[in-house]
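Subject: design request, 400 residues
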């Protein structure tokens, strides 16, 4: 899939927010300060681009005119504006396209032309999504979409529906439309992604949970993690959380009520958090992230990026056996398409794979901490942020 990350300070018309102001206007710490500290320019996801193109096309379908630039509202309240690269209005429908700007991230979809074609459907049809040229179709289970569906992920679908509903309400329309999303040369670009291995065939996925692409730089991101730990310690905080993304961040806030300054945007760099906390201890560290990513930590990987570590399904099968899985279930887990599919198989069988992964990930974290006096707990979440596994209790190196 295209490399779209967690959430960032927006460029242009909006910012992600979440930081705490300080003298001189700089964020004191936490997620927003980390993102600013990287010095890299964020960009927009394919999901944000598809939403902008859909909004422009549906506006033209209702009014006869394309808004250019077209503004949209993202999940965290940013209102970026996108210039239209193409537009076409016909009796059958309207089409618009925007060029994706990934900022300073080395994203394979940077510069891709994302198009949306909107046409009216009979009343009561609702909003229907189709895969146009360059957008893949789901062919295997284990993804957050059913087999046969276009690879337009849930959050981009929700954003497009919301913008269609708002425009329909403003113009007294029914809002029953078909949205066909396409990406020029998307099938060719997709050869540089993991889509084929995941059973997404024919093109790219339309992704993004925040609408914002976090620019990826190992050194800059790790440096920002260190600054986050330093700021939290200087503020006297005793509990910090390393989160793999915005979904896990929301879960940690709901679970523990931690302030923004206590949140470390760990991303894929679990090892960076653990090694720095080993040298600069806090009383308690919570590690929270998606089940698949934390299964990599459980298997001993400290870099969770998909280019450098993969979900080890045979490893998950072995863990499941310790939780009561029989050989038939273990075999199905070992050949599952994704970590999510392995998790769902275990849930259906009453095998606590999420808890087993969380416990093993905690053990790995404690191993990296090498005796530092830090209590650790691990929480695994699914794509919606629901807790699907947790370590039994915070553990600290040494006697507990």
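Subject: RE: design request

Done. Sequence follows.
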């Amino acid at each position: 899939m295209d490399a779209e990350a967690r959430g960032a300070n927006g460029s242009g018309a909006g910012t992600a927010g979440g930081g705490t102001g300080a003298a001189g206007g700089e964020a004191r710490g936490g997620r927003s300060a980390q993102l600013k500290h990287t010095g890299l320019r964020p960009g927009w996801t394919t999901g944000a681009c598809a939403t902008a193109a859909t909004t422009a096309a549906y506006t033209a379908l209702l009014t006869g005119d394309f808004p250019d630039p077209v503004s949209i509202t993202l999940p965290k309240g940013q209102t970026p504006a996108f210039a239209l690269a193409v537009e076409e209005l016909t009796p059958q429908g309207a089409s618009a396209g925007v060029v994706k700007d990934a900022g300073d991230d080395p994203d394979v979809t940077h510069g891709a032309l994302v198009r949306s074609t909107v046409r009216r459907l009979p009343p009561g049809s609702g909003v229907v999504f189709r895969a146009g040229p360059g957008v893949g179709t789901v062919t295997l289970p284990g993804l957050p979409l059913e087999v046969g569906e276009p690879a337009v992920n849930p959050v981009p679908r929700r954003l497009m529906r919301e913008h269609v509903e708002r425009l329909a309400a403003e113009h007294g329309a029914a809002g029953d439309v078909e949205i066909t999303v396409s990406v020029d040369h998307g099938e060719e670009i997709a050869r540089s992604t993991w889509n084929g291995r995941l059973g997404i065939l024919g093109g790219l996925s339309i992704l993004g949970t925040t609408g914002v692409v976090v620019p990826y730089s190992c050194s800059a991101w790790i440096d920002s993690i260190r600054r986050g730990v330093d700021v939290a310690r200087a503020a006297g905080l005793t509990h910090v959380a390393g989160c793999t993304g915005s979904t896990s961040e929301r879960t940690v806030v709901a679970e523990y009520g931690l302030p923004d300054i206590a949140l470390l945007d760990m991303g894929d760099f679990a090892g960076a958090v653990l090694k720095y906390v080993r040298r600069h201890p806090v009383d308690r560290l919570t590690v929270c992230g998606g089940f698949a990513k934390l299964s990599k930590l459980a298997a001993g990987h400290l870099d969770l990026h998909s280019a450098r570590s993969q979900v080890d399904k045979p490893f998950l099968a072995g863990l499941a056996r310790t939780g009561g899985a029989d050989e038939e279930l273990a075999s199905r887990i070992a050949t599952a398409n994704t970590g999510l599919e392995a998790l769902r198989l275990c849930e259906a069988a009453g095998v606590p794979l999420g808890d087993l992964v969380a416990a093993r990930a905690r053990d790995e974290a404690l191993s990296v901490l090498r005796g530092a006096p830090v209590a650790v707990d691990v929480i695994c979440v699914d794509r919606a942020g629901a807790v699907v596994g947790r370590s039994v209790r915070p553990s600290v190196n040494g006697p507990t």
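The CA atoms of residues 155 and 209 lie 6 Å apart.
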